[in-house]
């Protein structure tokens, strides 16, 4: 989540810099804009106890998205003539790209608070809500990717709005709304960081008998550190790749799979072999020989195809996470 906050601030800096160069009479550097926006607009939103007071800001942020989506979809094809597109299935940086895709699923910190926000807190309602949200986000992301690549090809920037000329006022409004959306989204990503650190240091005023001063100091120190990192880093695409390959692949692929294998299933290779051996050996025995064998193995379970399939899927996802993390990070480092 630290990487997420840094990336959001980098995006805000790129967008605000483009707008300031056009509309402000005074020239400001990108790093100055990031620090000003971070300290003036974002930091005051980080001192609530939880994200509840930010609900109205979240509504405002969501209302900005339709215009951003539509303006990119409508305006991008106007610049498609000069695009250099390559339709090969795998590009030269496929593993770093996998890391970037892993980063897009880095909102797992919001899962439990969103579950608590449901009127019907049941597994069925959660599956329906999360499935529809994931499907909608996937469609929007795919539309952005296809539109951007067909329009700008290999020259497509990590922030697609940077590919549009500064003279396009429709896009400039989209840049402004996108920057506002990101500013209102940063607190959602920062609160899990602060809650984790304050719990580790035992300075959480709700769980430990302490004042709010240490928590506030922690908030300022951690956020200012993220803002400084965003101000120093300039390559948004490289930051996406490094954070995605090195950390997001672990958080979103490896750890959930290992947690499921450890606590979410009784299936194991040893249990499968035992179950298969028990069912095979009892077929050729008479009743007198079968009863002691069944009593000895009465705790053994015959696993269903679904259980074994989920077990194999978990191992596959864990292996994929390790593959993206190790080889993706290696490829990024080799290309520096």
From TrEMBL:
InterPro entries referenced in this protein's UniProt entry, alphabetically: AA_transpt_TM
UniProt keyword terms in alphabetical order: Amino-acid transport, Membrane, Transmembrane, Transmembrane helix, Transport
Membrane topology: Multi-pass membrane protein
Domain of life: Eukaryota
Localization in the cell: Membrane
GO molecular function, one term: L-amino acid transmembrane transporter activity
One Pfam family cited in the UniProt record for this chain: Aa_trans
Keyword Transport: yes
Membrane-spanning ranges: 28-47, 54-74, 94-112, 133-152, 172-193, 213-232, 238-263, 308-330
Listed name of the protein: Amino acid transporter transmembrane domain-containing protein
Keyword set includes Mitochondrion: no
Family membership: Belongs to the amino acid/polyamine transporter 2 family.
Amino acid transporter transmembrane domain: residues covered: 2-261
First-listed, main subcellular location of the protein, grouped into a coarse class: membrane
Species: Coemansia interrupta
Gene Ontology cellular component annotations, sorted alphabetically: membrane
């Amino acid at each position: 989540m630290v990487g997420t906050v840094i990336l959001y601030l980098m995006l805000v800096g790129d967008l605000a810099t483009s707008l300031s160069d056009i509309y402000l009479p005074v020239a400001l550097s990108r790093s100055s804009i990031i620090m000003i926006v971070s300290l003036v607009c974002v930091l005051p939103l980080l001192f609530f106890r939880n994200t509840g007071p930010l609900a109205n800001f979240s509504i405002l942020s969501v209302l900005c998205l339709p215009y951003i989506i539509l303006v990119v979809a409508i305006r991008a094809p106007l610049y498609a003539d000069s695009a250099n597109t390559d339709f090969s299935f795998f590009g030269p940086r496929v593993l770093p790209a996998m890391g970037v895709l892993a980063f897009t699923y880095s909102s797992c910190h919001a899962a439990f608070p969103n579950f608590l926000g449901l009127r019907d807190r049941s597994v069925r309602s959660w599956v329906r809500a999360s499935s529809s949200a994931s499907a909608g986000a996937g469609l929007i992301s795919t539309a952005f990717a296809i539109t951007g690549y067909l329009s700008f090809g290999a020259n497509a920037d990590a922030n697609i709005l940077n590919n549009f000329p500064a003279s396009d006022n429709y896009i400039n409004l989209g840049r402004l709304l996108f920057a506002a959306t990101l500013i209102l989204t940063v607190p959602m990503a920062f609160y899990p960081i602060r809650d984790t650190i304050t719990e580790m240091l035992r300075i959480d005023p709700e769980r430990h008998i302490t004042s709010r001063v240490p928590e506030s100091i922690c908030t300022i120190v951690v956020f200012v550190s993220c803002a400084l990192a965003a101000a120093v880093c300039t390559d948004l695409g490289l930051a996406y790749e490094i954070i995605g390959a090195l950390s997001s692949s672990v958080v979103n692929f490896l750890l959930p799979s290992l947690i499921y294998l450890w606590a979410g299933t009784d299936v194991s290779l040893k249990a499968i072999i035992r179950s298969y051996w028990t069912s095979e050996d009892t077929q050729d025995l008479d009743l007198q020989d079968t009863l002691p064998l069944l009593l000895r193995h009465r705790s053994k379970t015959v696993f269903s195809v679904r259980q074994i399939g989920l077990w194999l899927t978990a191992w596959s996802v864990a292996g994929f996470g390790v593959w993206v993390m190790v080889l993706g990070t290696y490829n990024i480092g080799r290309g520096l």
